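Hey, resending since the last one bounced:
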Amino acid sequence: MLKLIDSQEVLTNTLWILTYWTRYDDRIFQVIRDMGYLPRIKYALHSGIETMAKPALRVLGDLMAGPDEIGQVKVDIF
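The structure tokens again:
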């Protein structure tokens, strides 16, 4: 779903929702990856649009949190 979103406002709101999921569930990384959301998160982060970049950065921070070994695997995938 996220990969089909063209509206900046909808993408921003969706990213804020993902911040709540990623904050409380360590297993969500696999879901986000499998659903194809990583490219849209990366796009939002690099967009230069602060309202999109903030939640994208927060999602990535939550996804990368945890032991270094697991974080490195996630970085390699991203």
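The mean pLDDT is 80.

Sorry for the duplicate.
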